[in-house]
Amino acid sequence: MANKKEVRGEERGRRKERGSERSKKDETSRGRTDRQRKQEAGEQMIRKECRGKEERQKERKNKGKRSENANMKQGGKGRPNVYNQWKEDRMIGALEEYKEALEKGAKVSVNHLSRAWGVPRATLQRRVRGEVSGGQHSSGRKPYLPEEAERELVAILKTLAQRGFPLTKRTVQQVAFDYAAKYRASQR
């Protein structure tokens, strides 16, 4: 049998060998991580560059849009419907500039004027051709009652409220309906 000291020494030697093996593994793994780190850093740079390109492309696509889902067509596809985003005085200014240019004999493009004045090109083109006589632009249905009749209706509703009649949504609708029926009958 061997001495206890010898056994302990052998165990210590084995431990040292195991430790050195472990340290070698650590060193090799560290080397791999350094390589991996470098590789990852390179990949991250490429990703950042790609992200920048993608963001620039998205910005180009969204350049004229107000927001992602504002005034989108049904189904969310295609170009957004943007109506009534211009002022009538700008349209009048563009038409006047076009007429002045014609009087001077200069040639002016409608596209250039529409961009300069911030009005729709097609609308300006129709007004220049005389297809549409300019007036107020509006989308949607025509109002059922003219503005005068609406003012009268508002006055009636206000007097009812001042005299103590409670106005709920339903009563306002009923009074408006009755008033509109009488107004239409008197206009015929």
What would you say this structure looks like, in words?
InterPro entries: Homeodomain-like_sf, HTH_Psq. This is HTH psq-type domain-containing protein. The protein has three domains: 60 residues; 42 residues, no CATH class; 41 residues. The chain is mostly helical and 188 residues long. The protein is built from six helices and no strands. Helices cover 68% and strands 0% of the residues. The protein is elongated and about 125 Å long.
Report a brief summary of the structure.
By secondary structure, the chain is mainly α. The chain has helices at about 5-60, 90-105, 110-115, 120-130, 145-160, 170-185.
Q: Could you give the topology of this structure?
A:
Layout: H1 4-61, H2 88-104, H3 110-117, H4 121-129, H5 147-162, H6 169-187
Domain HTH psq-type: 87-132
Region (Disordered): 1-85
Protein name: HTH psq-type domain-containing protein
Radius of gyration: 40 Å
Structural class: mainly alpha
Strand fraction: under 5%
How many helices? 6
Major β-sheet annotation = none
- Would you identify the regions where 5 or more consecutive residues have pLDDT less than 50? none
Secondary-structure element pattern, one letter each:
HHHHHH
Mean pLDDT: 76
End-to-end Cα distance, whole Å, is 129 Å
Organism: Coilia grayii
Protein name: HTH psq-type domain-containing protein
Pfam family, one: HTH_psq
Domain HTH psq-type: 87-132
